[in-house]
Design goal:
Layout (H helix, E strand, L loop, with lengths): L2 E5 L5 E3 L20 E5 L5 H8 L3 H4 L31 E3 L3 H5 L2 E6 L9 H14 L4 E5 L3 H13 L2 E6 L5 H9 L3 E4 L4 H15 L2 E2 L13 H12 L8 E5 L4 H15 L8 E7 L4 H7 L25 H11 L2 E5 L1 H15 L5 H15 L8 E6 L7 H7 L11 H7 L4
Parallel strand pairs: 5-13, 6-7, 6-9, 7-8, 10-11, 10-13, 11-12
Antiparallel strand pairs: 1-2, 1-3, 4-5
Helix pairs in contact: 4-5, 5-6, 8-9, 10-11, 12-13
The structure holds pyridoxal-5'-phosphate.
């Protein structure tokens, strides 16, 4: 399906070049980016939906929904198999007893179940597909860690090289994972602008493909597939679409992907109204939420001070589209503290069996905060998007869980000293 690109700031329209980055006319660099959005006509109807559902999600990954994604063709391996790591098709878990405690019907979309442990696998699938369309051999990206893990994994399958630029604070687990897939990883500081500038300059001088999402404008569209799945998973339970979807926001790709995905479902007549999209950010990194509160059209640059690396950005690069999505859906922005996220992380693990990294636990922390403010109506269907696995940052988790396990002699008496009987 042919696509074109439109600047979200000046409105200029460009052909759908797979290697496009930001608007060549009005972009102001990483501190004032002009993000491009994709124009693509999707003709979703019941027949197409049934055909897509008949494809095995394990063999197709997000490409099961290929007709709804902005690619020339579903990417394939030399054998003809679909180029996928099996991303997508993650569980939608009813959160009992957490939902009833808050008076809502709460679901957790567990994106930690993706192949590399975060929703970014869906975004990475789009970016790697576009890199192949562009004939690229090497990709470069700035990432807090999860996007680089997803890109490195799929690039390894596709035979492409990756250079990942991560922050000095990125967890060792994330770096180990990216390196294991064969990518080159460098830590660059002190600021995120330094990392983005390095990537942009390397891409320009060396001809490498820009895989930093959303500077690769197609990336967010991989996250549309989360919306399709949420809607369908609720529908199979006899529930109507969600009333609210609560999403932790860094650069805003997931948020925009959700919005576009639900717009597809609305246009197809599968839902009657868009769910209200909630953006959750750390108190120490509130670029989008501040913009929303102050009625700005652009993200407001600020500090990036939080334990939640995935959502601790100085600027929500895709803020313009996020703000549009919030206004159109009747959404809300909310900030949470590091303590809120750590306590949500524990509660999710202990009451729902879901081990989330702090950036992902932010979704549930946001639900708790909005619940306490009385924002939800009783019985509302709320989906919290648990964006990444707790195994991505075990140092923080172990500290929060009270430190390492004690070593004891192999005697029941010694065991009872540290594990009191019921
Ligand atoms: C676990 C996790 N949650 C949320 C986000 C934020 O996603 P986005 O940049 O699409 O807003 C990230 C980004 O890396 C992440 O790793």
């Amino acid at each position: 399906m042919p696509v074109s690109l439109r600047c979200t700031r000046c409105g200029r329209v460009y052909p759908g070049d797979p290697a496009a980055t930001t608007c060549p006319v009005c972009d102001g660099g990483p501190e004032s980016p002009s993000i491009l959005e994709v124009n693509q006509e999707v003709n979703l109807d019941r027949d197409l939906w049934e055909r897509m559902l008949a494809r095995s999600p394990r063999d197709w990954g997000i490409w099961r929904f290929g007709e709804l994604l902005p690619v020339e063709a579903v990417p394939r391996m030399p054998s003809g198999e679909v180029l996928t790591g099996g991303e997508g098709d993650t569980p939608l878990l009813r959160a009992e007893p957490l939902g009833p405690r808050l008076g809502i019907d709460l679901y957790l979309k567990n994106e930690a179940c993706n192949p590399t442990g975060s929703f970014k696998d869906r975004v990475a699938a789009m970016v790697v597909a576009k890199a192949r369309e562009a004939g690229a051999r090497r990709l470069i990206l700035s990432s807090s860690g999860n996007m680089a893990g997803g890109v490195a994994s799929l690039a390894a399958r596709a035979g492409l090289r990756v250079t990942a630029v991560v922050a000095p604070e990125t967890s060792v687990a994330k770096v180990a994972q990216i390196k294991m897939y064969g990518a080159d990883v460098v830590r660059v500081g002190p600021t995120e602008t330094d990392r983005l500038n390095l990537c942009l300059e390397a891409a320009r001088r060396l001809g490498w493909f820009t895989a930093t999402s959303p500077l690769c404008p197609y990336g967010s569209y991989g996250a549309k597939t989360i919306a399709y799945e949420e809607w369908y998973q609720l529908a199979t339970r006899g529930a109507r679409g969600p009333d609210w979807v609560v999403i932790p926001v860094g650069y805003g790709c997931n948020f925009v992907g959700h919005w576009k995905g639900y717009l597809d479902l609305l246009e197809a007549g599968f839902i009657r109204r868009l769910p209200r999209l909630v953006a959750v950010q750390p108190e120490g990194s509130p670029s989008l939420v501040r913009a929303w509160e102050e009625g700005s059209e652009e993200g407001i640059p600020g500090p990036s001070d939080s334990i939640a690396g995935g959502i601790s950005q100085t600027l929500t690069l895709n803020a313009r589209q996020c703000l549009k999505a919030m206004r159109q859906t009747g959404g809300v922005g909310v900030t949470v503290t590091d303590e809120d996220m750590l306590s949500a992380q524990k509660e999710l693990a202990r009451s729902a069996g879901v081990f989330a990294e702090p950036s992902a636990a932010a979704a549930f922390a946001g639900v708790v905060k909005l619940g306490a403010r009385g924002v939800f109506a009783p019985g509302d269907t709320v989906v919290a998007v648990i964006t990444g696995s707790g195994l991505k940052d075990t140092e923080t988790a172990l500290q929060s869980a009270g430190g390492d396990a004690p070593g004891i002699p192999a005697r029941v008496e010694a065991l009872l000293e540290v594990v009191p009987p019921e």
